[in-house]
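Q&A log
Question type: sequence-to-structure
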Amino acid sequence: MIRFLLERLLQAALLLLVVAFLAFVMFRFAGDPVAQMVSIDTTMEDRTALREALGLNDPLPTQFAQFVMRALHGDFGLSYQLGRPVAALLADRLPASIELSLIAFGLALLVGIPMGVYAGLKPESWLSRAFLIFSLAGISLPTFFIGIMLILIFGVELGAFPTFGRGDTVDLGWWTTGLLTPSGWHSIILPACTLGLFQMTFIMRLVRAEILEVMRSDYIKFARARGISKTRIHYGHALKNTLVPVMTIAGLQLGSIIAFGIVTESVFQWPGIGLLFIQAISTVDIPVMSAYLLLVALIFVSINLLVDLLYFLVDPRLRMSSK
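Response status: OK
Response body:
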């Protein structure tokens, strides 16, 4: 177990270092940050002094080493546009993105798994076929189109939900939440449905495929021959073995929800890190873009590491192979 954990930690550290290098190299040449920070009337001497203060005249290896050392201490520099520490900007926006992602992920699990189980156990029923048609629509339609249609139907025509913003929030010190206010719950429904629809249909189709495969296995046939009840076979044997690979995929989907909620946050003007990243791209705010990529990589690596550990604990074959 310890060796397994150390190997995964080493792989995670190397991956984060590669992502840091790519973020540094890509966005170091994305534009001249000094031109974005000063006005037309700024003299050349002031521009040179600003470049020197930002460390843009240092050699690239020196800049990268300084970038990594500052990132390890949680210091990503100052935003070129807002003039605030990037770490503070991310800390202000991260709670909104985390809450939206967790609600969307929970919705995807609570709806997608039962739909997949039903579609796998009763593949010929009309409801299962309806689930498959719904899943095709959820996978095929782009996220921005789903969001716009939900806004048009439930926000504009029916007036049932807000079309933008987070609603009222409660300050809990280092965390701000909208889940403790009615308007916060009211505001999160449409963006959570938009963000979680693809994940829900994906999980539903995955669970259905795993159920169909498990139900054809020999141990299920043996359990039927022994006279074990259908309920115990379906939920005690088939579902238990189905959720092992589903757990792995679902963990990675949580990372993708957090990382790629940019479109949803843009459509609903949700004040999260995705919207901050879009705004940083439009203004060539390099520190914000670099910090966002590192944060996304850290989220993916952490969730992947957690899933690997859970998979190691759940699957006895991995424990036997490690021994």
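Response note: The mean pLDDT is 80.
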